[in-house]
Amino acid sequence: MKLTIKRTSLLQELQTVQRAISSKTTIPILTGVKIVLADEGLYLTGSNADISIESFLTKEDEKAKMTIFKTGSIVLQARFLGEILRKLPEDIVTMEVLENNQISIVSGKADFIVNGQDAENYPHLPVIDTKNQMEIPVHLLTKIINETGFAVSMHESRPILTGVHFILSEQKLLAVATDSHRLSQRIIPIEQMVENFDIVIPGKSLQELSRSFVNEEEQVEISIMENQVLFKTKNMYFYSRLLEGNYPDTNRLIPATFNTEVEFYGPKLLSAIERASLLSHEGRNNIVRLSISPDSVILYGNSPEIGKVEESLNYEHITGDTLDISFNPDYMKDALRAFGEMNITIKFISPIRPFTLEPTEADVNFVQLITPVRTN
Amino acid sequence: MKLTIKRTSLLQELQTVQRAISSKTTIPILTGVKIVLADEGLYLTGSNADISIESFLTKEDEKAKMTIFKTGSIVLQARFLGEILRKLPEDIVTMEVLENNQISIVSGKADFIVNGQDAENYPHLPVIDTKNQMEIPVHLLTKIINETGFAVSMHESRPILTGVHFILSEQKLLAVATDSHRLSQRIIPIEQMVENFDIVIPGKSLQELSRSFVNEEEQVEISIMENQVLFKTKNMYFYSRLLEGNYPDTNRLIPATFNTEVEFYGPKLLSAIERASLLSHEGRNNIVRLSISPDSVILYGNSPEIGKVEESLNYEHITGDTLDISFNPDYMKDALRAFGEMNITIKFISPIRPFTLEPTEADVNFVQLITPVRTN
């Protein structure tokens, strides 16, 4: 293997696959990046127990200034290769595999000889049947991940809840996540005719996936196998394992009738919750209280040792009964951040029943649920 | 105490004194900031065992939009006050001390009541005799700190070496620091007639001091007492304790005659050292080797398990004997960063004797010393 390439282009590819590379793995070769130089361009692969990422840089990419002298392959320590590429003196680097799986990395007068490993020893990635593929825009997938991923459980006591549940049926894709204290569910219509599926993808994989996309305007192809899912863009294959087990039936959790409804402008409510949580975070019980009457909504935060805060909130509309309800402000903050800049309606049943948050405009099928805290 | 003030102006003052406030102190009141509102403006004070900072915001400062309704004082949790100020809904905040050392903090519709402490219980700052004052520009003091502070010892085994030694005598200010492996010494001429001094200021205090200055063009007044030093600018009093004990005589450590001299452009040498240290950092002995002959200078880094690097260096001049010398590249990096963008001359005696680095242009009195590593 021998090539010359612009070092910043190679570094960028390396950073993409490094999302899948951990220095803490128990399989030593997985701390490395697999580099394969083929006639059509350069493939890099990084992998851990949960995800694998393969990136491809075509020789047609003029910015990368790639010249291929001899195809071949090697595995190099990923972190160390990155440090070398960052510090090289010139724009262009020449890399050549020598005997004994060593590689020469030359740029200007700097001449590195680095020990690598035989690429034959690198584990094979799963082969995924690419017949049943669904295609959606990257920006839409990223949005769904941001709208649901934060609500997955962080605890391994119920592993299935650490993932996001995706169900494709009746031309609709449903994504839902819950940690049993709050829930977030998003549904989008799907026009393609593809086979239905019902899978649970680890929340951490989805987080890395959404960070790995470079072009929001691209399409991403989703292929599903027994225990793997593949997300495929023009220059990246992103594999994740699936979680095994039955995801709880969340549909019956979302109530249909309510007694009190208040409409807010999301970002304004978020700022007020952030202020009130300054106090609640200092106390033992991280709760704030919302007091709704026909002509006012007042938010209270209290921590006896530190102080208290009280704020009369700006709202758009109130309908229904008066209500006093307490909840964990951090769940509310996460929920409001997921909505972003829009008007939302919060619907309550009683101080002890979960309440929902939805966009006021009915054109988006997105609902969140938060369980209140009983205070007496 | 009652005032209105622009919250970002108050936050900026708070951030200055917060450099002296630790949440880990054993004296609870020192986690607070002392706030004193006087007829002329607002004083904030933060303090820990090593440094105390007092900032002053004059009511004449139009940007701060300060209105003083009633003078007074209080001590508030510094971190918590900062969080509140950052999150308030409006530009202007009204603060009023209530009964029982509580304070009301109001901005827009948000109304905080926060528990404080009586300012009478806050420790008094040392009173410093301001007769014997030296004055130098802030940018010059900052430069001296950057040129010497990095060389102090990080180990408490010889506490005196954790400080920078400042000596004023014969119209010259000498600053020197050493951790016994390397040394950095800077001398500047002083024109004022002030009493000579010989003090050791903790390196950490100097680091905080250089970060606390906001205006490089100002003058700073330096006053010295038995065990304290005060740095005074228009809006800030910065106190530091002095280190007790005798600083070793470093003057005799700097050699006067040499056998090999090489001139480099500092930043180019620094880049090459950074590359070579990528390899040495992976190995057990963090050393690189420089091989100087009449017509080449070659730098080697080696870590048998990982690989090796070799780079022929660009230099300006070589005079004297051939030499092979090994050293810790991290000391060299620190030294070269302190010189910045200039040509420097490195002067060697032998592979086992300390070598010096100096600016090639003789107009700056700045010398650094590094002890080599014996390799056989």
TrEMBL record, chains A, B:
It is found in: Cytoplasm. The keyword Cell inner membrane does not apply. Residues 252-374 form the DNA polymerase III beta sliding clamp C-terminal domain. Residues 136-249 form the DNA polymerase III beta sliding clamp central domain. Pfam families: DNA_pol3_beta, DNA_pol3_beta_2, DNA_pol3_beta_3. InterPro entries: DNA_clamp_sf, DNA_polIII_beta, DNA_polIII_beta_C, DNA_polIII_beta_cen, DNA_polIII_beta_N. Belongs to the beta sliding clamp family. Forms a ring-shaped head-to-tail homodimer around DNA. This is Beta sliding clamp. The lineage of its organism: Bacteria, Bacillati, Bacillota, Bacilli, Lactobacillales.
